[in-house]
Each structure stands twice: as structure tokens, then as C-alpha cells.
Here is the input.
Amino acid sequence: MAPILLYHKVCNFDPSGTWVTPSQFEQQMRYLHENGYSTITPYEISEKKEKTVIITFDDAYEDFYYNAFPCMQKYGFKAVLFAISKYVGQDNSWDVNFGAKKKLMNWEQLREVIKHGFIIGSHTVTHPELTRIPIEQVKQELLNSKIELEDKLNSKIDFISYPFGSYNQNIVKVVQETGYKLSFTSSPFIKENMVIGRMGIYIIDTLIDFKFKLSKENNIPYLFEAIKSHTINLFSHGTWIWKNFESFFKLH
Ligand SMILES: [Zn+2]
Here is the structure.
């Protein structure tokens, strides 16, 4: 199976850890291009083609549109963007107790990237941790986001990414019943029938790390990168790193 990469923000600073700079992103895309990689979509996930990669972005931040979209187009690459239906065109207020508000792509921008062959998936309606809410509410999050995104974007929504990577088998059942074809989580170690893991790419990754993240799974550097990505994800989307910075400076 092709390596599946997970990005969040492409910007010049963010306190979360789940970001890369625009020049880092450019360097990574150039590396893929120069080494003969092409991007495929999750529709082609079972094809056994060499040198393919699936690139995904959680949350669909506006900085994708300005800092990643032009670069990806230059190399003829495509990606999947997982949008939060209630927050389209708004900011990330589900996640801003440290005051770094960030805008998310609006409907117009989402429609434009679709025109260029990019795929939109659901990242629920309100970005809750699905394992912590009643199953009835899970159903609403999965179904209503699909309906609204399909309606406003006039495009099929076949894939979903779990907020905080968090799911269980009851949730997977709802994913199937709602008509999604595949779901994505943030740990690179997961490979189930309906749930696909992804390798997170972050600010601390050098180009060498990036190369290992693309490599086959049975080598030590890959495993190291997978553990690193998994660990950052555990603390991502939230305030853990920032809060620990804060308490560190308060104490010292
Ligand atoms: Zn998210």
C-alpha cells in the first residue's frame, strides 16, 4: 500500500507542533517530484503501483489554500482535505484555548480545489472526540457533515477522518452504515478493513526523516518515525505542548 501522509497546518508558526513551514512543505513536495513519486487518491488505495503516495490534510485550514495548494499544483499533485462542516469559513474555535485562532477554508475555496482534482472528506460537524459522546450523537456528526458537504460542494463525500484520531468498533460500524467507503486515523500503526492509519509530518521532521516516513515498513528508521508521529499525534490538536511550555516557563 502507498504511504499515507497526514498534514495539518502549513504556516510560519503555530504553538501546536502539528505544522510545517511553507518552505519545508515545498522541499518535501520537490523531493517527491524529483524522485518520481505521484499522488493517488484513496479510491486507488489498493492499486499496487510503485512510488505513489496519498497526501491528506486534517481540518482544511486556510493556510493550505495559500501555502500548499499552489505548490502541489506546480508538481501536479493531489490531496484529500478533511473539512469540519460547521467550521467551514470560520476559525478553529474547538481548539483555541491558547489563543492561536486560525481560519479554515471557505466553501468557495473548497469548491476550487475540487475543480483541480482534490478530494474533500468529512472531519465531522463539530470536531468532537467521537469515543466520548453518545453513539446517537456520533451518528449525527457523521451523517450531517456528509449531507452538508455533499450539498454545498456538489461532490461525493466518501471518506472520513476521525477528530483526534479517536474511534472504536461501534463508531466504525456507524461509518459503514452512513455510507463512507473508508475512514482515516492518525496513528501510522493502524491497518484495518475500514480504518487506515497515516504518518504525520511535523515541524521537527528533517528531509531525512521525511524519506524514512515514505519508506517500507520493515526497517528501524521507519519504526522510529512511526513512533515519533504517533506520539506527537497523541498530544496534537490541543494544547498539551503549549500548556507544558507555559508551565515550564512559569516554574523556571
Ligand atoms: Zn482535526
The CA atoms of residues 185 and 246 lie 29 Å apart. The radius of gyration is 17 Å. The domain at 4-251 is CATH 3.20.20.370 (TIM Barrel). The longest strand covers residues 52-59.
